[in-house]
Amino acid sequence: MSKYNKLALVILVLVVAAAWICYTAFSGTSDNIKIRKGLDIAGGMRVVLQADRNSADWPKTDVQAQRDLMDKATSTIEKRIGGLKGVSEGKAFIQGADKIVVEIPGIKDSDKALDTISNTAQLEFYYLKDVQSASNPGGRWKISDGGQDEYVFSDGETEIYSGDKEKVMKEVVGAPANKPILTGKDLMPNSRQAISNKTQPVVEVQFNKEGRVIFKEFTKKHVGDTLAIFLNKELLTAPTINEPILNGEAQISGFKDLEEAKNLANLLNSGALPISFEVGSQESVDPTIGGDAFSKTVKAGAIGLLVVILFMIFIYRLPGFIASLALCIYTMLVIAIFAALGVTMSLSGIGALIISIGMAVDANILIFERLKEELKAGRTLSSAIDTGFKRAFTAILDSNVSTCITCLLLIQFGSPAVQSFAVTLLVGTLVSMFSAITVTRTLLHLTVNFEGLQKPELFCVSDSKPTAPFNFVFVDNRTIYYAISGIVMACCIAALLVWKLNPGIEFKPGTELKVSFKQSIASVQDIKGIVDGLYEKNQIQLANGSKTAIIKVTGKDQPNISTKDQDALVAALNDKYEVARTTDDGKPIADQANSVNPSVSKELVHNALIAVFFACIAIILYLAIRFAIGGALDGVKYGVCAVIALIHDALFVMGLFAILGKFLGWQVNSLFVTAVLTVIGVSVNDTIVSFDRIRENLRHRLKGENFSQLVNRSLNQTLTRSIYTSVTTLLTIASLIIFGGLMLRQFYWTIFAGLAVGTYSSIFLASQLVVSWYNAGLSKKDRALNRVVVKDKEGKVLVSAPKPQETEAPEEEDGSSPAAAPEKAPAAKAKKKNTGRKRRF
């Protein structure tokens, strides 16, 4: 059995296994193997809880103690999520040093869920030694018969209500001098709600071994005294001890209903949080909105895949068909990996998968263009396949590594939605290398065995229709390209300085609601009066044919507003314009709600800047290593020039969004940063393709050819593949823009614009900058004569050849034609005359 027959067998096994995993995942026959939908698809709530670093319980300098505390808090929150009704896949995980991200898909009552997971649940039992009782008639405070709603403590001159937590703890309890007798740590994890003999809801608790002894001894000594039970420093109940309690059990009363008692029982069973938390950000998505966006995104992906397949078959014929088959295998493998690993897929993650489909074809395009060159040079089909793959591999490796670098930075510094995108793109990039290098190559070699499939026209190579090579003048016109880029950059910088970027909810603290209406809203002013009546600081934008309002408000006391206030705002809008979405009981609700506090907003901006900075540094270092042909400095030249082109692309996108933000209200958020970083990681691919050919041509230089001519020849040789690789990626993004719905449309537009301008900068800017840098190092005489200078490591001139004269361009050994050559090629390399006869490989 040949090498490629063995590989074909391995691929077949992988395809069968992937098909089984995909079938299992989509049929729902396994709880372990399935596609898990993110919150933006399944609906639900995502909350970022931030620990109170000013608390006395927070370890100031002990990093390990901080980690242990956060681990304990995460475990407690996970237990509480498990106690929520109707929740089966909620999760909590640590982000950074002091944050916990909580995701609860499918939750309907977000208010109750938030209260449950963020409640510190510090249960404390205090002996009220200064309260009058049968055994302590001379106590200062007397408790009035305030019932269960509120207690009143009076000393004849002063009245303190139990709702005033600070005064109760200081004046009545005497804290912190008066320590609690027992806390929630002394309870067994088996609390339960019940109904007392007075038909009042209570929580029955049982103390552990140590707590039972303490409670027994205390109740023996204090029969007739008052025992107060506090939850988070708020008085729940203050019963009188009628008799010693010897069985280690107690009842907690003071609840409005059985549901409130049940919530406390769940909190006590899960344990108290070791430190208090505040809500850093909160996001809620209606399930129907997420489901609709999911179906549209999948549809867009299918259309994008079909368009790319048709494009590849039209351009490359038989190799294009094989690449399309490999692309289908690639898609199946990626989905199977996600299903087997239990990766949670968000809309941004699905978008990354679809974009990676376009990128996966890039490697095939590089290979097929090389294959055509080798076939035109007269190689056999089998030899051309191996040589084409070998020569294309370096460009494929370098471009994919740059994408992986960006993905790793996004995973490190991004929000959960950003991380989902980055993980998907990273896995897709790695699998695409396997697909192109192994699957496509194996299928092409198997094709060689069928004589009927060895026709030159099936590989876009025909003796009867020779094609003239490109011979555009790029390098000599570089000052024109510099001027064009300079003017565009000046306009973009001016837009950023004058109009600035329009920050979204993540970068500007507050609350953002997306509300859909059954009828179109004539203008923003129609609903602005309603919003103005509740919140003075607000921004309103209409979308989706004026049937959706995106409302951003800032509270009076704090930037973000509570869920209760959000409901009140939606209800006020519903009074005038009927809101499209309601709960089962008819309550109007928003499609989506996001809230971010200032500290989280500041951290997002900080992380975004760090990610962009490190992405640029990492790309410079990698390219410096990979392109250090004449030494480390030469490698740095390539890296710096590539990053300058990337900064050019990023500035263009930012300037464009400043303009769109001014006139269309487009906002930037964490996904915008993701898009910019994606542009940095992906658009550098075309630059690397050009640099790779320059690197190869430097090793096989034409006699007397100067560096400018070499670069110009390299750009012409890679022009087709640079355009095609961009087109396939842009086609998939275009399908997402057209068919993928509104939720991520601005995100896709950002990537589309960035990659489009990235294609321009790769061809007209990056390589030209390398030439300018190279020429800047020449002497005035050599620069005037346009000489080629080659120096050794010590700087000694080895070659100083004059500019060659223009002659007929010979065909190179690899089948490509130079832009200019110094002299006629040897007879052995002379171009063969076209006889008009067809040949087989």
How would you explain this protein's 3D organization?
With 841 residues, the protein is α+β, with helices and mostly antiparallel strands. It folds into three domains: 123-272, 2-Layer Sandwich (Gyrase A, domain 2); 287-497 and 601-783, Up-down Bundle (Multidrug efflux transporter AcrB transmembrane fold), CATH 1.20.1640.10; 510-596, Alpha-Beta Plaits. The chain has 21 helices and 22 strands. The protein has an eight-stranded antiparallel beta sheet. Strands 9-5-12-13 form a four-stranded antiparallel beta sheet. Helix 3 (63-82) packs antiparallel against helix 4 (110-118), helix 8 crosses helix 19 (707-739) and helix 13 (478-498) packs across helix 17 (632-664). It is elongated, with a radius of gyration of 35 Å. The relative contact order is 0.09.
